[in-house]
Design a protein that fits this description.
The complex is a heterodimer of chains A (112) and B (442).
Chain A: E1 2-8, H1 13-22, E2 29-35, E3 42-46, E4 49-53, E5 56-65, H2 70-81, E6 91-95
Antiparallel strand pairs in A: 1-5, 1-6, 2-5, 3-4
Helix pairs in contact in A: 1-2
Chain B: H1 11-15, H2 25-28, H3 32-64, H4 70-96, E1 102-104, E2 108-109, H5 135-156, H6 163-185, H7 190-194, H8 202-220, E3 227-228, E4 231-232, H9 240-259, H10 268-300, H11 305-320, H12 328-351, H13 360-378, H14 384-412, H15 419-424, H16 426-431
Antiparallel strand pairs in B: 1-2, 3-4
Classes of the chains: A alpha+beta (112), B mainly alpha (442).
């Protein structure tokens, strides 16, 4: 099993969710986050005083999938979240040792 | 607002219209009783419009403070209005309107004590002033102006001042400082005798609130982190939709503020003047908003909504000293210059490290001074030197008296919350109650 962590632009969330559902993903964790990467921050002015917005709003997706489809899922996210402009986000993939479905006690691939 | 009250009525004044001495049939249809009723109605309508400005101030301030201080800001606004009501009744009203009975001629009223209404169910002969309006309507209307002065202060000192010392200041401001200087103009005191013109209070109300706020801001100091390492750190407001609603409510209330200050509605001339005032007041607000919109676009590449809100209010303050005589174009221009003043005064205060959370000092003090001077542009009866003299006299008095009260409060009760309380927000630290308990704080 793989844990896929992806940061995407907030307005891309619905598009990515649809593409993931179509690709067979049955669960997804979503968090509103702020952060910085290559896009970095930007300068704004409030009542005549300049200030730097250091953190840009993003959406963080976390999903666990079977090893066999991990690459395909990464490709789906990468394709649908892409605008070609700076700040599209990043995707990380991590090995997952175990998964348990709380209701039934199922483990491993059966639990995801 | 010139008070034309006379203590004693001459019998002739009451009976004149009934005797049919009016010059033509149309005028004859307006009896003295009707004039009195219409004047009273103007005060009542104007009064509740100005009352609603309390809501405007509350929303403007609630929107421009950070979410961790919203409950406190609302608490201060409700409390200050209510305390102003009591203080103005207890000392303010009679201090402001001596009706010719001075203990120091033209300076200090000789009438002390509670405000008293007329008896229940009077007729015109039983009225305090049969040529003016009911005392109840006059008290109600004037009280609202007094409370507005205190509202100005609360915004400037937000997010760091302790509740109770602030409220003590409000009682002194609304019970003594405001009514005392207002008596110099509207109570028929020495500034009025000199020919000082301030129709609805650019100086008497707005600048006085602004001076009190400035004295408080200087003595209180800026919010933690506002000015650090030579930089200004903006602390964006929690809800600009509320702030905008507040601005619109104030704009609405201002029709009562300026229109009601005609003080008479019993003739064609008076109601026509009231309508001129409404139209000019609106034009000045629009001028201030448009100028702030364009100027912030030019200066900062993006328009700044909070400056546009301040710009509209500065336009309103600017026209308040003379909303009657300008043409619509002139009113727009006077308001527009108010907008310019705000856009430059806000960053200037930051340069001086004077932390004014909502822009009360640029709007009410700076534009108030401008509006008082601008009277000479359209009213031939105004004298520039008298206007300037009055601005200085009232300014020095309001600033020194407020400063003294702030210093005394600082030395006795302390006026500033602890650093920890300020960082955690006054809502939890002083009240234990969040305005938005479901959301994370910023």
């Amino acid at each position: 099993m793989k844990l896929i962590i992806a940061t995407i632009k907030p307005f891309k969330l619905e598009e990515v969710r649809e593409a993931l559902t179509d690709a067979g993903v049955r669960g997804l964790m979503v968090t509103e986050i702020k952060g910085f990467g290559a896009q970095s921050g930007h300068t704004e002015i409030y009542r005549g005083a300049e200030y730097v917005v250091n953190f840009v709003p993003k959406i963080k997706l976390e999903l666990v999938v079977a090893d066999g489809i991990a690459d395909q899922i990464v490709e789906v996210i990468s394709r649908t979240a892409q605008t070609g402009k700076i700040g599209d986000g990043k995707i990380f993939v991590i090995d997952v040792e175990q998964a348990v479905r709380v209701r039934t006690g199922e483990t491993g691939d059966d639990a995801i | 607002m010139t008070l034309s009250k006379k203590l004693l009525l001459t019998a002739a004044a009451i009976t004149l219209p009934q005797m049919g001495l009016a010059q033509d049939t149309e005028a004859a249809s307006v009896t003295a009783e009707m004039v009195w009723i219409m004047n009273t109605l103007l005060f009542l309508i104007g009064g509740f419009l100005v009352f609603f400005m309390a809501a405007g101030f509350a929303m403007l301030e609630g929107g421009l403070v950070r979410s961790k201080n919203v409950t406190m800001q609302m608490t201060k606004n409700v409390a200050l209005f209510s305390l102003a009501t009591i203080a103005y009744w207890a000392f303010g009203y009679n201090l402001m309107y001596p009706l010719g009975t001075w203990s120091v001629e033209g300076v200090l009223s000789g009438v002390f004590g509670f405000g008293v209404l007329e008896a229940v169910g009077i007729d015109l002969a039983g009225a305090d002033d049969g040529e003016y309006a009911s005392t109840g309507s006059d008290f109600f209307f004037q009280l609202m102006f007094c409370a507005a002065t205190a509202s100005i202060v609360s915004g400037a000192l937000a997010e760091r001042i302790k509740l109770w010392p602030f409220l003590v200041f409000v009682v002194v401001l609304t019970g003594v400082i405001y009514p005392l200087q207002a008596s110099w103009k509207w109570g028929g005191g020495f500034l009025d005798n000199m020919g000082f013109l301030d129709f609805a209070g650019s100086t008497v109300v707005h600048s006085v609130g602004g001076w009190a706020a400035l004295a408080g801001a200087l003595i209180l100091g800026p919010r933690i982190g506002k000015y650090k390492d030579g930089r200004v750190n903006p602390m964006p407001g929690s809800n600009l939709a509320l702030a905008t609603l507040g601005m619109f409510i104030l704009w609405l209330g201002w029709f009562g503020f300026n229109g009601g200050s005609q003080l008479a509605m019993g003739s064609v001339g008076d109601i026509a003047d009231v309508s001129r005032i409404f139209a000019n007041t609106n034009a000045a607000a629009a001028g201030g908003a448009v100028v702030a919109l364009i100027l912030t676009q030019l200066l900062y590449k993006k328009p700044d909504l909070t400056m546009v809100l301040n710009g509209a209010l500065a336009g309103l303050v600017s026209i308040t000293a003379e909303p009657l005589t300008p043409s619509l174009g002139m009113a727009t221009l006077i308001g527009g210059i108010g907008g310019v003043i705000v856009v430059f005064a806000v960053p200037l205060l930051d340069k001086l490290k004077i932390d004014d959370v909502v822009g009360a000092i640029p709007v009410h003090l700076c534009a108030g001074i401008w509006g008082t001077i601008a009277v000479v542009l359209t009213n031939p009866e105004a004298s520039l030197s008298t206007q300037l003299y009055s601005i200085i006299v009232v300014g020095v008095f309001a600033f020194v008296a407020s400063g003294a009260v702030w210093f005394i409060l600082k030395a006795t009760m302390g006026i500033r919350v602890s650093e920890e309380a300020e960082i955690n927000g006054l809502d939890m630290a002083e009240l234990g109650m969040d305005a938005y308990p479901e959301f994370s704080k910023s």
